[in-house]
Structures are given as C-alpha cells and as structure tokens.
Amino acid sequence: MAIVTARSTEGAEIHLDANTLGDLRARLRGALLLPGDPGYDESRAIWNGLIDRRPALVGCCLGVADVAACVNFARERNLGLSVKGGGHNISGLAVCDGGLMLDLSRMRGVWVDPLARTARAQAGCLLGDVDRETQLHGLATVLGFVSTTGIAGLTLGGGFGYLTRRFGWSCDNVRSMELVTADGRVVRASERENGDLFWGLRGGGGNFGVVTSFEYALHPVGPEVVAGAIAWRAEEAPDVLRLYESLDRHAPPELTCAAMLRLAPPAPWLQPAIHGRAIIALLLCHSGPVEEGEKQVGPIKAFGSPVGDVVRRRPYVSQQSLLDATQPKGRRYYWKSEYLPRLGPALCAKLIEQAQRIVSPHSGIILFPIDGALQRLPEDHSAAGNREAAAVLTVMASWETARDDETNMAWARAAWKDMRGFSTGGTYVNFLTEEEGDERIRAAYGKNYARLADVKTRWDPRNLFRMNKNIPPRDGA
Ligand SMILES: Cc1cc2nc3c(=O)[nH]c(=O)nc-3n(C[C@H](O)[C@H](O)[C@H](O)COP(=O)(O)OP(=O)(O)OC[C@H]3O[C@@H](n4cnc5c(N)ncnc54)[C@H](O)[C@@H]3O)c2cc1C
C-alpha cells in the first residue's frame, strides 16, 4: 500500500510503499522525515518566507554515505530531488515540491590546517562556521556579507564578500571539492582530478552533483580589522556616491566599501532623529594591518556629517555578521540584480531617485564592489566568469506580509528596469529570483554557458540535478 505519494522529476505521481521507505531508512544514518514528522516543517522552512514548498521526503544526511544513498534512491525512481545547504537562496531552490530533499544542515564540520593554510568544510556549513574556525588561526577565505548564508550555494555560484577585491571569487579560492555524482559515485574535483568538473563546479551551481565538502585556500586576515558601517542623510548621497566611486578606483585592495541606500532602521548606532528617514550607508572593511586600516578610513569618517558611525577596530567575525539582523529568516524577499562595469553620474542619479521610491522599511539598494583580484584571471578560468564587472548592483525588496507582495515586487522590478541599461549584460546567478529562467541563466554565464552545457552532459546526462539555476544537458533531459 502506498504511504507516500511523491513526484517524479517531470511531476508525475510516484507511490512509495512502507517497504520502499523502510529500505531507504535502513540505508541512512540520519533521519528520514515525512510530512507531519517532528522536524519536517523546520527542515523545509528557508530564509525567504515567500517560498512554501513541501517535499514528500526529507533525508537528513549525516555524512557522504547518506548523500549517496539519497542520490541513488532518487535516481532509481526518477524522483524529484533538491539539495539544501544553508537554505538562503532567494529562489528557494533548496526545497522541492513532492520530491526528496537532502538536508545537509547537520554536516557542519570544519578542519583547518594552519601550516598549509587550507580548511576543509562540510557542505552544510554556514559562513560563520568557517570564519569561526579559521579565525582561530588568524586566517580567512572569501565568504559573503551575512554569516547565516550557506557556504555551498554561495561558493558553487561564485561567491563574493569583503575579501573579494584582494582574493577574487570564493570559488577562486577553492582547492578541491568532494561530491556525489548523479550515478552515485563519490569523486574529487580539483585542478588535477576531474578538471572539467572542477571548472564547472566553480560557478555552475548544483548542476553536477551534491558537493559534500570544500577545501578552501586561506589568507592571513584579522582576527582584528578596522571595519563597520557609517551613515549619512540621503541629502548627502550624491557626494557619498562620488566618495564610493573614488574609493573603488583608488583604495588599496585591502579596503572594501559597499554602499547601501535605504530607510534608517531604529538601530542604536543611528541618531534617533534619523530613524525611518532615508540614508546612505557605507559598509567598510579594511582587512590588512589595523594601523594601516585606521589611516585609510580616517578621511571617510571625517567626510560630510555622518548620522552614525561604528567603523573601528573590531573582530573580523563581528564584521562578517554585522548585517545578519537586517536579513532575518522567514521575512519576504525579492531581489533584482545586475553587474556594473562602473558607476558614473547618470547611474548615481537613478540610484538616488529609485531609493526615494522604496516602499518598505526593510528594503534597500546595494552596490557591492568586486573589482580587483578576480579581474586578474581570464574569463574562462572557471564557470563563474563575469570578470569584467566592477560591482554588483542589487535592488533588495523585503517586507512582512503577503498583502504587500505586489507593491514591493513592483518597486524592485521598476527600479531594476530603470537601471538595467547600465549593466555589463551579466547578472549574478546566486541573486536570480524564481521567475528568472533560461535567458537570465545564460546572461549569468555569458560565453562560459556552452562549456557548462558540455560538463553537464558528461556528468548529469539525465538532468537529475535540476532544482537549481538549471543548465540542461545537450539532447534534452
Ligand atoms: C541574506 C543574504 C546575503 C547574501 N550575501 C551574499 C554575499 O555577500 N555574497 C554572495 O556571493 N552571495 C550572497 N548571497 C547569495 C547566496 O550566495 C545564495 O543565496 C546561495 O545560494 C546561498 O547558499 P545556500 O547554501 O544557503 O543556499 P541553498 O538555498 O541551500 O542552495 C542554493 C542552491 O545551491 C544548491 N546546493 C546547496 N548545497 C549544495 C551542495 N552541497 N551541492 C550541490 N548543490 C548545492 C541548491 O540545490 C540550490 O540550487 C546572500 C544571500 C542572502 C539570502
């Protein structure tokens, strides 16, 4: 008798009886969760509250063997399959409807080799897990701006953060990966082993298998850095954007400065009179020696009339989690993003104009600088590409309730449309929303797309791994 009705990769019904489920349970060290089981709803709940999907089964993997068992089970039955790393993807790609979801959140081990300056991290790690362990040795790799993001999705899509201007994409700093492929094999990918796979995994997302661990190169950083945030009234935005531009062009690679236009949150570091009013903030991080950092940020702290300033010596891990509270799990989120070749006065004017139309106190427009180290490598160094970009422009809408969905999404779409003309033509694959399909995926990869399709065809010819920004294998799935 069928006790679970699941969905195939094409959406057809698949009935799973008690024996079949018992067989999978016996193959797993971790739990197998069904709808209604304790932990099931917690496992399927992800960062973006807009996403509400219900897998038929959740495999809570405790190790590589559990991952292989789940992949084999799904392939043998043509069952829909999704993989949850940190669950932070804006499109909610971690969770499938009616299929088998692999939940990697219990695989969070990190092993640091301080002499070799490398760290191996299991694929369920959040960014903060890796920083915490590597910082014990005054080392770090390139990770993103919010510590609760998963390393897996971030690294597989490229990955940028405060260290990008010095050390490139996160995936440029990966030495090797271990993964379970569509045929259930456990393989390593590095420059020396399965080089085509290694090339594709560094930017091509979860298209080629389930990565179980990453080996990162580490660099001396911190543990203390000069970093924080500084804000001005929106009236000063034209001058502050000029300052941002000049820092982007002339600041040493150790200094990263992201710009954010939004309404001031009621945060203690901002003057109470400014709460709820439009501001522009710079997020600063100098990752070199603190004395040099203080010298570099001095003129920025003295610029104009700040309404809040928490730029100071602080632990690198504190900077890495500075934005966490602004991005709580479960709120509703919708983003639109483009790579920019440069800023310039016309775009600055648009940024200011669109920021004035923000409709939610949680929304904002952000410029993340990424120029520097990543441009020193050729475009086809790895699948991530987009190495001519100077910054990532992201319109970030965030709000509380379903009744405000349309208004907030409409603001983000309109702002994006207005500024899209300034794009390099590329877009960051990790920031693509649910509705952004094939055309935008191709734009994200540019001329690397054709080679990605070759790698996909070789490693996943039946497109088992399709719950991602999908690159279909040649000759169809
Ligand atoms: C608040 C916030 C801040 C962010 N800041 C940054 C930033 O500073 N820099 C940056 O580069 N990006 C940033 N991102 C984007 C982030 O890189 C992506 O959302 C990324 O997908 C998150 O990874 P995850 O593991 O949490 O995602 P998940 O939602 O778990 O997974 C995302 C995709 O990766 C696949 N995947 C996950 N784990 C594996 C695995 N082990 N093997 C194969 N495929 C896998 C999933 O199947 C899915 O397709 C941010 C996102 C959020 C929500």
Describe this structure in words.
With 477 residues, this protein is an alpha+beta fold. The protein has three domains: 2-103, Uridine Diphospho-n-acetylenolpyruvylglucosamine Reductase, domain 2 (2-Layer Sandwich); 110-220 and 445-459, Uridine Diphospho-n-acetylenolpyruvylglucosamine Reductase, domain 3 (2-Layer Sandwich), CATH 3.30.465.10; 224-431, 3-Layer(aba) Sandwich (Vanillyl-alcohol Oxidase, Chain A, domain 3). The protein has helices at 18-27, 40-44, 64-77, 127-135, 151-157, 164-167, 195-201, 237-250, 290-301, 316-320, 345-355, 405-419, 438-445, 449-459; strands spanning 2-7, 13-17, 32-33, 57-60, 81-84, 100-103, 110-113, 118-122, 139-140, 174-180, 186-190, 210-217, 219-220, 224-233, 255-263, 278-286, 308-309, 312-315, 332-340, 364-369, 391-399. The strands form five sheets. Strands 14, 15, 16, 17, 18, 19, 20 and 21 form an eight-stranded antiparallel sheet that branches. A five-stranded antiparallel sheet has the order 7-8-12-10-11. A four-stranded mixed sheet has the order 3-4-6-5. Helix 8 crosses helix 11 (345-355) and helix 11 packs antiparallel against helix 12. The radius of gyration is 22 Å and the shape is globular. The two termini are 31 Å apart. The chain binds flavin-adenine dinucleotide (FAD). The site of flavin-adenine dinucleotide has 35 residues, from strand 5, helix 5 and strand 12.
